[in-house]
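Hey, can you fold this one?
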Amino acid sequence: MRIAILSDSHNEMPAALPRLLRGADEIWHLGDVSDPSILVELERLACPLKVVAGNCDVWPAWPRVRTLERAGHVFHLEHIPPMRPVGRAKTILHGHTHIPRDETDPLGVRWLNPGSVSEPRYNGPPSFAWLTLAESPRRAPAPYTWELVFL
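Sure. Predicted structure:
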């Protein structure tokens, strides 16, 4: 399973992004979409699109937090990173900083941020990420990979 992870589009969706996301099994947007109409091109890809609201979003249909389980992993999605790990989640996916992140804390919780698809706040290009999950033959979590993609 390949999940495209993006964040902080702030009313701008790079023209190449929908083409790059073809083949995604799901798309998760970690907030600060701003105007929901910019998601239309992503919705046309006909795969599930999960969005969490960011601090710049006022769209009431989007929750502030999502907990999703895939291939035995519990993922916590929230725009502004929580201060500490949440619930059973061993992976926290967040946006807000506009800076890519891949860190594992002393408790073994992995903190991931795909950066921003429109406004990076570091000396580098816009970015998104692929989260690729292996199939798990049992209930044990399957391995997964995180690949940052620069636009």
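The mean pLDDT is 94. Let me know if you want another pass with a different chain boundary.
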